[in-house]
Amino acid sequence: MYLCHRIPYPPNKGEKIRAFHQLQAIAARHEVDLFTLTDRADDLVHQSALAPYCQRIMVSKLNPRLSRLRALPFLLTRSPLTVPYFYSDELQREIRSAISQRSYDRIFVFCSAMAQYVDLAGGIPVVLDLVDVDSDKWAQYADSASFPFSAIYKREAHRLQDYERHISEKAACVLVTTAREARLVRQIAPAARVHVVPIGIDSKHFNEAADRPVASFPTIVFVGEMSYYPNEQAVLYFTRQVLPLISDCVPGVRFLIVGRNPSSKVRKLQEIKGVEVTGSVPDVQPYLAQAQVSVAPFKIAAGLQTKILEALASGLPVVATPIALQGLLPSVADVINAGQSPEEMAKQIVFLLRDPQLARRVGLEGQRRVAAEYGWGPILEGFLRLIENPGVAEEQTVPG
Questions:
Q1: How many domains does the chain have?
Q2: Is the same domain home to 151 and 243?
Q3: DSSP letters of 344-388?
Q4: 69 Cβ partners below 8 Å, 6+ apart?
Q5: What is the pLDDT of residues 357-378, one digit of tens each?
Q6: CA angle 318, 349, 132 (to 5 degrees)
Q7: pLDDT > 90? residue 282
């Protein structure tokens, strides 16, 4: 049984990429039943794309507005709001019925909020993929927000941490994407068996950058789901504080913001000369191919940033804030230029934009290292070994 909080198709963002590849890998050796949620009616068409990997697919629809209203009363309880937000009576009934009728060898839980559905799993080993430690992200939100949201976010961080402790120590093993996340889980839940399984990258899809000509105009790109608060915050910070410094040194510079569901604040950035907000695109690779530099100017970050891996796999040099690099293997982080302040970040970008051949060489070295360190093949082999033997005593790091 595979449970996830978003239907894992199309694999066009970090969590869906990870879940889809996991599902493919498990299906190659085992029978899989998929139970999942969606808050978009048009996602239901993706069941046909997942059918080759699943014996059964059950998708329950969530209404985001009703989910928020359902979560509000829990402010007066010790429960994190995230858990009731992702609760569905329909999905709970279907999961309970399936557990009673089917002989599952494993229950795989993707995302902490889905653990609520398997309290009645009995003796079936549960493998929990936290991906990132969500309580840590809420704590970062609290630090960056003003009252009253800072108080709500701080409450969610504390409540979610208690919940993460409970489900992690109850699971047969816990998976996370980086060594930093593993350390956080061990601090929260000392009795948990924790393993690092990185996100991989499909280098073949992105390596067209190796053959592209050097851009004739200076272009910077950011790729990400723009309804996600850390992404929105990152592009607002970059456009308002970093881009003007670059424009003073590199006239005509262009900044592409590529990703679905841009907020009104992000769309308004198009009023700034040289800024383009694309909204949803079928494939990010053509936009990466237009650029000379990719940026990851995060103030809030956790886990492994897929957008950095994709940019490097495209042969693009990356300039990032230090917090964005914390989940990367050192051999890959070493090829990324980091800038803490707007001035430091602008200086690194201007240097690369003024020397396209240097930018190309740096990007291709990053491409080589990402292909060597983050290929899906070794990652998924290690992943399968863990779920097939989740009770291994020693904590492992899957090759990545």
A1: 2
A2: no
A3: HHHHHHHHHHH-HHHHHHHHHHHHHHHHHHSBHHHHHHHHHHHHH
A4: none
A5: 999 999 999 999 999 999 999 9
A6: 35
A7: no
**Residue 223: CB partners within 8 Å, gap ≥ 6?**
258, 259, 284, 287, 288, 294, 307, 310, 311
Q: What is the model's pTM?
A: 0.90
Q: Using pLDDT thresholds of 50, 70 and 90, give the confidence band for residue 204.
A: confident
| Rounded-to-integer distance, Cα 175 and Cα 198, Å | 9
Sheet holding 293-296, edge to edge: 275-279, 254-258, 219-223, 293-296, 318-320, 337-338
Do 108 and 215 reside in the same domain of the chain?
no
Q: CATH number, domain at 241?
A: 3.40.50.2000
- Predicted confidence band at 42 (pLDDT cuts at 50, 70, 90)? confident
Q: Does residue 190 share a domain with residue 78?
A: yes
Tokens of 64: 């985001």
Query: Would you state the pLDDT for residue 203?
Result: 79
Residues 170 and 267 in one domain: no
Mean pLDDT score of the chain, rounded to an integer? Answer: 91
Contact 48, 59 (CB under 8 A): no
User: What's residue 86's pLDDT?
Assistant: 96
Give the model's confidence band at 208: pLDDT under 50 very low, under 70 low, under 90 confident, else very high.
low
Query: Is the Cβ–Cβ distance between 261 and 280 less than 8 Å?
Result: yes
Same domain, 207 and 109: no
Q: Other CB atoms closer than 10 Å to residue 41's CB: what's the count?
A: 8
Domain hosting 41: range is: 2-200+376-388
Q: Is the pLDDT of residue 396 over 60?
A: no
Please tell me whether residue 32 adopts helix, strand or coil conformation: coil
Token pair recorded at residue 145: 């927000």
Whole-angstrom CA distances from 169 to 4, 115, 188, 189, 207 are 19, 12, 10, 6, 41
Judge if 212 and 337 occupy the same domain: yes
pLDDT band at 202 (very low <50, low <70, confident <90, very high): confident
In a domain, 102, yes or no: yes
Q: Which position has the token pair 């292909």?
A: 371
CB 197 within 8 A of CB 176: yes
Which of 87-91, 160-164, 395-399 is least confident? 395-399
71 and 108 part of one domain: yes
